[in-house]
Amino acid sequence: MSERVVLAYSGGLDTSVAIPYLAEQTGGDVIAVALDVGQGGEDLENIRKRALACGAAEAVVVDAKEEFAADFCVPAIQTNALYMDRYPLLSALSRPLIVKHLVAAAEQYGGTTVSHGCTGKGNDQVRFEAGLSALNPDLKVIAPARDFAWTRDKAIAFAEEKGLPIDVSAKSPYSIDQNLWGRAVETGFLEDIWNGPIEDVYDYTADPAEPREADEVVITFASGVPVALDGRPLTPYQVIAELNRRAGAQGVGRIDMVEDRLVGIKSREVYEAPAAIALIAAHMELENVTVERDLARFKRSVDQRWGELVYDGLWFSPLKDSLDAFVADAQKHVSGDVRMTLHAGRAVVTGRRSAASLYSYDLATYDTGDTFDQSLAKGFVELWSLPSKIAARRDRES
Fold first, then answer.
1. Which of 64, 180, 267, 383 maximizes the CB count within 10 A of its CB?
2. Residue list, annotated binding site
3. d(CA 250, CA 75)
4. Which of these is catalytic: 4, 14, 246, 268?
5. Distances in Å between the alpha carbon of 78 and those of 54, 82, 227, 287, 325?
6. Across 37-149, where does the E strand assignment appear?
């Protein structure tokens, strides 16, 4: 049997050209694998037909929206995952899911090599190949754009030479990656970090400065999983999709940042993540109500490390597996409702309630009915301050 190359296929110019190019380079068959992770755009069946028309021996298309939401976006909510305290990992979360399906296709079709369209400057090459190494270390990897210096000009010329059924005339001034969890925009005039984004950069969000009525939403969580909006039971995918529309209509989730890439350079990125920003803000507030103080303090360091691991392509790693177990246990009581106002580019929590709440009105109130015994506070403060007092005396006497 000839060699079989499993290609992560998007349907665009670069990966369409990669089909005949890889066949020529390897002398083998190309298996194209395309996933719907909520990126919108073309129908999967059209993408499948294009892959076959470009010479793929087989074309696999997967509707992975529900899987992406439940198995990848939900853990990011539970860990309040914001790389550098801002970026909600939208591209980083989709890569391990794609890798999982590439490995499955390789097993199904006898693939020995996997190919992706990443360049040598980005993070995604690491995410693909680290994931592949963890799930099937015997698979070889070919990355045409990186390994063969495959430029857009070469790709267009090759497509025209082969008569491939793809449109190469229009080119966006930006490099765009999008999925259910958000949208990433880079390159073009954005590479000058003094230039401000203009409105045509955005697609998931409306201009937050435009006057409009506020939108109030109640988000229900069960063990850290969003399960309902305004009392309507929904799957995580449905929750995220609806909040993308509602929070996006209010301009929530615009992020403009200079980011530390894994490969060692800084990159200017513009993101839109309306549902992600709203859900993480709501989840963090519900944790404030339901998670004990020391557990919450420790979890913040776990959340940061979890986000770094995912950003760095280590979704399938022993440390992440162990952190996942910790997070799952820490989410046992993170259930309840959070009310938010979505308006003018902000998602603001205005109410929270939970049967597992650690908040006690009787202890917190300053009014009649206060059950907090203030007489105990004086001794507590003295004992708490004692180490500092002893050290201060020593330092004065030395």
1. 180
2. 8-16, 87, 117, 119, 123-124, 127, 175, 259, 271
3. 25
4. 14
5. 41, 11, 13, 9, 12
6. 58-63, 113-115, 140-142
Q: Determine the pLDDT at residue 314.
A: 98
CA distance 35 to 6: 13
Please name the amino acid found at residue 317.
S
Choice among 2, 175, 360, 385 that is catalytic: 175
Q: Which residues in the chain show pLDDT less than 50? A: none
Q: For residue 323, what pLDDT is reported?
A: 98
Is 388 designated active site?
A: no
Query: What sign has the CA pseudo-torsion 248, 271, 277, 209?
Result: negative
370 has catalytic annotation: no
Rounding to the nearest 10 degrees, give the CA dihedral for residues 321, 134, 35, 260: 70
CA-closest candidate to residue 151, choices 280, 14, 256, 328: 14
Of 50, 95, 254, 268, which is the active-site residue?
95
Tokens found for residue 333: 């009581």
b or e along 348-377 (b: 16 or more beta carbons within 10 Å of the residue's beta carbon)? ebeebebeeeeeeeeeeeeeeeeeeeeeee
Residues annotated within a binding site for ATP:
8-16, 117
C-alpha distances out from residue 327 to 121, 324, 364, Å: 32, 5, 28
Tell me what pLDDT residue 168 has: 61
Strand arrangement of the beta sheet that strand 336-343 belongs to = 232-233, 225-229, 215-222, 336-343, 346-353
| Binding annotation for L-citrulline | 87, 123, 127, 175, 259, 271
Task: Give the pairing type, strands 215-222 and 336-343.
Answer: antiparallel
User: What backbone torsions phi and psi does residue 211 show, to the nearest 5 degrees?
Assistant: -70, 135
Residues forming beta bridges with residue 229, ordered by sequence position: 219, 232
Based on the residue annotation, tell me whether 375 is a catalytic residue of this protein. no
Q: Among this protein's residues, is 95 annotated catalytic?
A: yes
At 148, which helix (H) or strand (E)?
none
What's the whole-model pTM score?
A: 0.94
